[in-house]
Amino acid sequence: MTSKWLLQTHPMRSGPFPLVALAGPTASGKSAAALQLAQYARAHWQTTVEIISVDSALVYRGMDIGTAKPSLAERAQTPHHLIDILDPTQSYSAAQFARDARDVIDAIWQRNHLPLLVGGTMLYFKALFEGLSALPEADAALRGRIAQQAAEQGWPALHAELARIDPPTAARLEPGDSQRIGRALEVWHLSGQPLSYWHAQDAPAASPATPPALLLSLEPVSRHWLHTRIAQRFDAMLAQGFEEEVRRLRQRGDLHADLPSMRCVGYRQAWHALANDEPLEHWREKGIAATRQLAKRQITWLRSMQQRHVIACDGPDPQGEVIRHVSELLNR
Q1: Quick check: helix, strand or coil at residue 71?
Q2: Alpha-carbon distance 188 to 94, whole Å?
Q3: Residue 185, CA atoms < 13 Å, CB-side half-sphere
Q4: Which of 49, 71, 69, 57 is nearest to 117 (CA)?
Q5: What's the predicted TM-score (pTM) here?
Q6: Are 114 and 20 in contact (CB under 8 A)?
Q7: Nearest by Cα to 271 from 245, 294, 246, 237
Q8: pLDDT tens-digit readout, 133-168
Q9: Do 59 and 85 form a contact (C-beta atoms < 8 A)?
Q10: Closest to 287 in 3D by CA, of 67, 63, 31, 69
Q11: What 3-state class would DSSP assign to 117?
Protein backbone atom coordinates (compact mmCIF):
# COMPACT_ATOMS: atom_id res chain seq x y z
CA MET A 1 0.00 0.00 0.00
CA THR A 2 1.34 3.44 -0.86
CA SER A 3 1.70 6.21 1.66
CA LYS A 4 -1.12 8.12 -0.04
CA TRP A 5 -3.64 5.37 0.71
CA LEU A 6 -2.38 5.15 4.28
CA LEU A 7 -2.88 8.88 4.70
CA GLN A 8 -6.47 8.66 3.57
CA THR A 9 -7.34 5.84 5.94
CA HIS A 10 -5.99 7.75 8.94
CA PRO A 11 -7.74 11.08 8.37
CA MET A 12 -7.49 14.31 10.35
CA ARG A 13 -10.30 16.88 10.47
CA SER A 14 -8.00 19.48 8.89
CA GLY A 15 -6.77 17.11 6.18
CA PRO A 16 -8.32 15.04 3.41
CA PHE A 17 -11.60 13.34 4.12
CA PRO A 18 -11.59 9.59 4.77
CA LEU A 19 -12.97 6.91 2.49
CA VAL A 20 -16.37 5.67 3.71
CA ALA A 21 -18.27 2.66 2.35
CA LEU A 22 -21.93 1.77 2.72
CA ALA A 23 -22.78 -1.81 1.75
CA GLY A 24 -25.80 -4.05 2.12
CA PRO A 25 -28.12 -6.45 0.35
CA THR A 26 -30.53 -5.30 -2.30
CA ALA A 27 -33.54 -3.33 -1.01
CA SER A 28 -31.88 -2.59 2.34
CA GLY A 29 -32.11 1.18 1.87
CA LYS A 30 -28.51 2.00 0.89
CA SER A 31 -29.34 4.72 -1.64
CA ALA A 32 -31.78 6.50 0.66
CA ALA A 33 -29.27 6.43 3.52
CA ALA A 34 -26.49 7.73 1.27
CA LEU A 35 -28.62 10.61 0.01
CA GLN A 36 -29.70 11.47 3.56
CA LEU A 37 -26.04 11.50 4.65
CA ALA A 38 -25.13 13.78 1.74
CA GLN A 39 -27.94 16.17 2.62
CA TYR A 40 -26.94 16.19 6.29
CA ALA A 41 -23.28 16.79 5.40
CA ARG A 42 -24.16 19.83 3.31
CA ALA A 43 -26.37 21.32 6.00
CA HIS A 44 -24.38 20.53 9.15
CA TRP A 45 -20.77 19.95 8.10
CA GLN A 46 -20.59 22.25 5.05
CA THR A 47 -19.18 19.21 3.27
CA THR A 48 -19.91 17.75 -0.14
CA VAL A 49 -20.38 14.00 -0.29
CA GLU A 50 -19.77 12.35 -3.66
CA ILE A 51 -21.26 8.89 -4.15
CA ILE A 52 -19.39 6.15 -6.01
CA SER A 53 -21.71 3.39 -7.15
CA VAL A 54 -20.55 -0.15 -6.34
CA ASP A 55 -23.15 -1.87 -8.50
CA SER A 56 -22.57 -4.03 -11.56
CA ALA A 57 -25.98 -3.13 -13.03
CA LEU A 58 -25.94 0.65 -12.59
CA VAL A 59 -23.03 0.96 -15.02
CA TYR A 60 -25.41 0.32 -17.96
CA ARG A 61 -27.26 3.06 -19.81
CA GLY A 62 -30.94 2.51 -20.53
CA MET A 63 -31.39 0.13 -17.59
CA ASP A 64 -32.96 2.50 -15.10
CA ILE A 65 -36.14 1.07 -13.63
CA GLY A 66 -35.08 -2.53 -13.05
CA THR A 67 -31.83 -1.43 -11.39
CA ALA A 68 -33.52 1.09 -9.06
CA LYS A 69 -31.08 3.64 -10.45
CA PRO A 70 -30.95 7.01 -8.64
CA SER A 71 -33.11 9.55 -10.45
CA LEU A 72 -31.67 12.41 -12.48
CA ALA A 73 -32.91 14.79 -9.78
CA GLU A 74 -31.08 12.84 -7.08
CA ARG A 75 -27.91 12.77 -9.17
CA ALA A 76 -28.20 16.51 -9.77
CA GLN A 77 -28.47 17.10 -6.04
CA THR A 78 -25.58 14.81 -5.06
CA PRO A 79 -22.69 13.89 -7.40
CA HIS A 80 -22.75 10.22 -8.44
CA HIS A 81 -20.01 8.28 -10.22
CA LEU A 82 -19.73 5.01 -12.20
CA ILE A 83 -23.37 5.16 -13.29
CA ASP A 84 -24.38 5.07 -16.99
CA ILE A 85 -20.80 4.54 -18.18
CA LEU A 86 -21.42 1.57 -20.53
CA ASP A 87 -23.78 0.43 -23.24
CA PRO A 88 -25.58 -2.85 -22.40
CA THR A 89 -23.61 -4.59 -25.15
CA GLN A 90 -20.39 -4.08 -23.18
CA SER A 91 -18.84 -6.01 -20.30
CA TYR A 92 -17.34 -4.68 -17.07
CA SER A 93 -15.08 -6.52 -14.65
CA ALA A 94 -14.24 -6.18 -10.97
CA ALA A 95 -10.67 -5.27 -11.92
CA GLN A 96 -11.93 -2.49 -14.20
CA PHE A 97 -14.16 -1.24 -11.39
CA ALA A 98 -11.24 -1.13 -8.95
CA ARG A 99 -9.16 0.94 -11.38
CA ASP A 100 -12.02 3.31 -12.15
CA ALA A 101 -13.00 3.66 -8.50
CA ARG A 102 -9.44 4.57 -7.47
CA ASP A 103 -9.36 7.28 -10.13
CA VAL A 104 -12.69 8.66 -8.95
CA ILE A 105 -11.64 8.57 -5.29
CA ASP A 106 -8.46 10.48 -6.12
CA ALA A 107 -10.45 13.13 -7.99
CA ILE A 108 -12.90 13.51 -5.10
CA TRP A 109 -10.05 13.92 -2.63
CA GLN A 110 -8.48 16.56 -4.87
CA ARG A 111 -11.75 18.50 -4.55
CA ASN A 112 -11.51 18.03 -0.75
CA HIS A 113 -14.86 16.23 -0.74
CA LEU A 114 -15.91 13.07 1.07
CA PRO A 115 -15.97 9.91 -1.12
CA LEU A 116 -18.78 7.50 -0.26
CA LEU A 117 -18.84 4.02 -1.82
CA VAL A 118 -22.41 2.71 -2.00
CA GLY A 119 -23.63 -0.62 -3.35
CA GLY A 120 -24.11 -4.33 -3.10
CA THR A 121 -21.77 -5.88 -5.68
CA MET A 122 -19.53 -7.59 -3.16
CA LEU A 123 -16.87 -8.71 -5.64
CA TYR A 124 -16.34 -5.05 -6.53
CA PHE A 125 -15.77 -4.21 -2.86
CA LYS A 126 -13.32 -7.11 -2.61
CA ALA A 127 -11.44 -5.97 -5.71
CA LEU A 128 -11.09 -2.46 -4.34
CA PHE A 129 -10.38 -3.30 -0.70
CA GLU A 130 -8.20 -6.39 -1.13
CA GLY A 131 -7.18 -6.67 -4.76
CA LEU A 132 -7.86 -9.74 -6.89
CA SER A 133 -5.96 -12.97 -7.35
CA ALA A 134 -4.10 -13.46 -10.62
CA LEU A 135 -6.64 -15.68 -12.38
CA PRO A 136 -5.67 -17.42 -15.63
CA GLU A 137 -6.32 -15.37 -18.75
CA ALA A 138 -9.42 -16.15 -20.80
CA ASP A 139 -9.06 -18.73 -23.56
CA ALA A 140 -11.48 -18.15 -26.44
CA ALA A 141 -11.11 -21.64 -27.90
CA LEU A 142 -11.73 -23.34 -24.56
CA ARG A 143 -14.68 -21.05 -23.86
CA GLY A 144 -16.14 -22.03 -27.23
CA ARG A 145 -15.87 -25.73 -26.37
CA ILE A 146 -17.57 -25.16 -23.03
CA ALA A 147 -20.38 -23.24 -24.76
CA GLN A 148 -20.80 -26.09 -27.24
CA GLN A 149 -21.01 -28.58 -24.39
CA ALA A 150 -23.66 -26.39 -22.76
CA ALA A 151 -25.63 -26.25 -26.00
CA GLU A 152 -25.67 -30.04 -26.10
CA GLN A 153 -26.22 -30.79 -22.40
CA GLY A 154 -27.66 -27.60 -20.91
CA TRP A 155 -26.13 -25.27 -18.31
CA PRO A 156 -27.66 -27.15 -15.35
CA ALA A 157 -25.59 -30.19 -16.40
CA LEU A 158 -22.44 -28.06 -16.46
CA HIS A 159 -23.42 -26.63 -13.08
CA ALA A 160 -23.56 -30.21 -11.77
CA GLU A 161 -20.11 -30.83 -13.22
CA LEU A 162 -18.83 -27.69 -11.49
CA ALA A 163 -20.35 -28.90 -8.21
CA ARG A 164 -18.14 -32.00 -8.43
CA ILE A 165 -14.89 -30.11 -8.99
CA ASP A 166 -15.57 -26.83 -7.15
CA PRO A 167 -18.41 -27.18 -4.61
CA PRO A 168 -17.96 -23.70 -3.00
CA THR A 169 -18.24 -21.90 -6.33
CA ALA A 170 -21.16 -24.03 -7.54
CA ALA A 171 -23.00 -23.36 -4.27
CA ARG A 172 -23.10 -19.61 -4.90
CA LEU A 173 -24.12 -19.85 -8.57
CA GLU A 174 -27.53 -20.56 -10.04
CA PRO A 175 -27.73 -23.52 -12.46
CA GLY A 176 -28.55 -21.16 -15.31
CA ASP A 177 -25.76 -18.63 -14.68
CA SER A 178 -23.96 -19.43 -17.92
CA GLN A 179 -21.39 -16.64 -17.75
CA ARG A 180 -20.03 -17.51 -14.30
CA ILE A 181 -20.34 -21.28 -14.65
CA GLY A 182 -18.46 -21.10 -17.95
CA ARG A 183 -15.70 -18.97 -16.45
CA ALA A 184 -15.34 -21.28 -13.42
CA LEU A 185 -15.00 -24.33 -15.66
CA GLU A 186 -12.55 -22.45 -17.88
CA VAL A 187 -10.35 -21.61 -14.88
CA TRP A 188 -10.42 -25.26 -13.78
CA HIS A 189 -9.38 -26.57 -17.20
CA LEU A 190 -6.66 -23.93 -17.65
CA SER A 191 -5.04 -24.17 -14.23
CA GLY A 192 -6.06 -27.49 -12.72
CA GLN A 193 -7.28 -25.54 -9.69
CA PRO A 194 -10.89 -24.56 -8.88
CA LEU A 195 -11.97 -20.94 -8.92
CA SER A 196 -12.48 -21.04 -5.15
CA TYR A 197 -8.77 -21.86 -4.78
CA TRP A 198 -7.81 -18.72 -6.70
CA HIS A 199 -10.20 -16.55 -4.73
CA ALA A 200 -8.60 -17.81 -1.52
CA GLN A 201 -5.11 -16.74 -2.58
CA ASP A 202 -3.60 -13.48 -1.46
CA ALA A 203 -4.09 -10.61 -3.88
CA PRO A 204 -1.02 -9.84 -6.01
CA ALA A 205 1.28 -7.10 -4.79
CA ALA A 206 0.70 -5.23 -8.06
CA SER A 207 -2.91 -4.54 -6.97
CA PRO A 208 -2.64 -2.30 -3.90
CA ALA A 209 -5.60 -2.39 -1.56
CA THR A 210 -7.80 0.59 -0.85
CA PRO A 211 -9.29 -0.12 2.59
CA PRO A 212 -12.02 2.22 3.81
CA ALA A 213 -11.68 4.12 7.04
CA LEU A 214 -15.26 3.04 7.79
CA LEU A 215 -17.33 0.22 6.31
CA LEU A 216 -21.00 0.36 7.26
CA SER A 217 -23.31 -2.55 6.42
CA LEU A 218 -27.10 -2.28 6.36
CA GLU A 219 -28.35 -5.75 7.29
CA PRO A 220 -31.82 -6.94 8.33
CA VAL A 221 -32.59 -8.48 11.69
CA SER A 222 -35.68 -9.99 10.09
CA ARG A 223 -35.39 -11.76 6.74
CA HIS A 224 -39.18 -11.42 6.43
CA TRP A 225 -38.80 -7.64 6.53
CA LEU A 226 -36.29 -7.75 3.69
CA HIS A 227 -38.38 -10.17 1.64
CA THR A 228 -41.38 -7.85 2.00
CA ARG A 229 -39.26 -4.90 0.89
CA ILE A 230 -38.01 -6.84 -2.13
CA ALA A 231 -41.55 -7.69 -3.23
CA GLN A 232 -42.76 -4.14 -2.70
CA ARG A 233 -39.87 -2.70 -4.69
CA PHE A 234 -40.37 -5.17 -7.53
CA ASP A 235 -44.05 -4.21 -7.71
CA ALA A 236 -43.08 -0.54 -7.71
CA MET A 237 -40.71 -1.20 -10.64
CA LEU A 238 -43.51 -2.87 -12.57
CA ALA A 239 -45.78 0.11 -11.89
CA GLN A 240 -43.05 2.46 -13.14
CA GLY A 241 -42.78 0.64 -16.48
CA PHE A 242 -40.15 -2.08 -15.99
CA GLU A 243 -41.83 -4.31 -18.59
CA GLU A 244 -41.79 -1.53 -21.19
CA GLU A 245 -38.13 -0.84 -20.41
CA VAL A 246 -37.18 -4.46 -21.15
CA ARG A 247 -39.30 -4.46 -24.31
CA ARG A 248 -37.38 -1.42 -25.56
CA LEU A 249 -34.10 -3.16 -24.85
CA ARG A 250 -35.24 -6.25 -26.76
CA GLN A 251 -36.34 -4.13 -29.70
CA ARG A 252 -32.81 -2.78 -30.16
CA GLY A 253 -31.83 -6.01 -31.87
CA ASP A 254 -28.21 -6.03 -30.66
CA LEU A 255 -28.82 -7.48 -27.19
CA HIS A 256 -29.24 -11.10 -26.19
CA ALA A 257 -29.91 -13.12 -23.05
CA ASP A 258 -26.27 -14.15 -22.47
CA LEU A 259 -24.88 -10.62 -22.16
CA PRO A 260 -23.82 -9.67 -18.61
CA SER A 261 -26.24 -6.72 -18.69
CA MET A 262 -29.21 -8.91 -19.58
CA ARG A 263 -28.27 -11.43 -16.91
CA CYS A 264 -28.85 -8.88 -14.15
CA VAL A 265 -31.51 -9.98 -11.67
CA GLY A 266 -34.94 -9.02 -12.93
CA TYR A 267 -33.82 -8.44 -16.50
CA ARG A 268 -32.87 -12.10 -16.95
CA GLN A 269 -36.32 -13.24 -15.81
CA ALA A 270 -38.03 -10.54 -17.88
CA TRP A 271 -36.12 -11.47 -21.02
CA HIS A 272 -37.09 -15.13 -20.66
CA ALA A 273 -40.73 -14.26 -19.92
CA LEU A 274 -41.10 -11.98 -22.93
CA ALA A 275 -39.30 -14.43 -25.23
CA ASN A 276 -41.68 -17.22 -24.18
CA ASP A 277 -44.90 -15.20 -23.77
CA GLU A 278 -45.08 -16.03 -20.09
CA PRO A 279 -47.72 -14.24 -17.99
CA LEU A 280 -46.52 -11.20 -16.09
CA GLU A 281 -47.28 -12.91 -12.80
CA HIS A 282 -44.79 -15.69 -13.60
CA TRP A 283 -42.09 -13.13 -14.31
CA ARG A 284 -42.93 -11.30 -11.10
CA GLU A 285 -42.66 -14.47 -9.00
CA LYS A 286 -39.38 -15.52 -10.61
CA GLY A 287 -37.93 -12.02 -10.36
CA ILE A 288 -38.77 -11.71 -6.68
CA ALA A 289 -37.38 -15.19 -5.94
CA ALA A 290 -34.14 -14.40 -7.80
CA THR A 291 -33.80 -11.11 -5.92
CA ARG A 292 -34.22 -12.93 -2.61
CA GLN A 293 -31.46 -15.35 -3.60
CA LEU A 294 -29.23 -12.41 -4.53
CA ALA A 295 -29.86 -10.82 -1.13
CA LYS A 296 -29.01 -14.10 0.59
CA ARG A 297 -25.67 -14.30 -1.25
CA GLN A 298 -24.91 -10.67 -0.45
CA ILE A 299 -25.57 -11.17 3.26
CA THR A 300 -23.37 -14.27 3.31
CA TRP A 301 -20.53 -12.30 1.73
CA LEU A 302 -21.01 -9.37 4.08
CA ARG A 303 -20.68 -11.64 7.10
CA SER A 304 -17.18 -12.55 5.94
CA MET A 305 -16.15 -8.86 6.09
CA GLN A 306 -15.09 -8.70 9.70
CA GLN A 307 -14.21 -5.01 9.62
CA ARG A 308 -17.78 -3.90 8.94
CA HIS A 309 -20.04 -2.03 11.37
CA VAL A 310 -23.52 -3.54 11.16
CA ILE A 311 -26.57 -1.28 11.18
CA ALA A 312 -30.02 -2.88 11.30
CA CYS A 313 -31.74 -1.69 8.14
CA ASP A 314 -35.06 -2.67 9.74
CA GLY A 315 -34.19 -0.80 12.93
CA PRO A 316 -35.86 2.40 14.18
CA ASP A 317 -33.46 4.86 12.49
CA PRO A 318 -30.87 3.30 10.16
CA GLN A 319 -30.23 6.57 8.32
CA GLY A 320 -29.55 8.33 11.60
CA GLU A 321 -27.16 5.54 12.57
CA VAL A 322 -25.23 5.99 9.33
CA ILE A 323 -24.89 9.72 10.00
CA ARG A 324 -23.80 9.07 13.58
CA HIS A 325 -21.04 6.66 12.59
CA VAL A 326 -19.66 8.99 9.92
CA SER A 327 -19.85 11.96 12.28
CA GLU A 328 -17.86 10.07 14.91
CA LEU A 329 -15.24 9.18 12.31
CA LEU A 330 -14.84 12.79 11.17
CA ASN A 331 -14.49 14.02 14.75
CA ARG A 332 -11.76 11.60 15.82
Answers
A1: coil
A2: 20
A3: 26
A4: 49
A5: 0.81
A6: yes
A7: 246
A8: 777 777 888 888 998 899 999 999 999 999 998 898
A9: yes
A10: 67
A11: strand
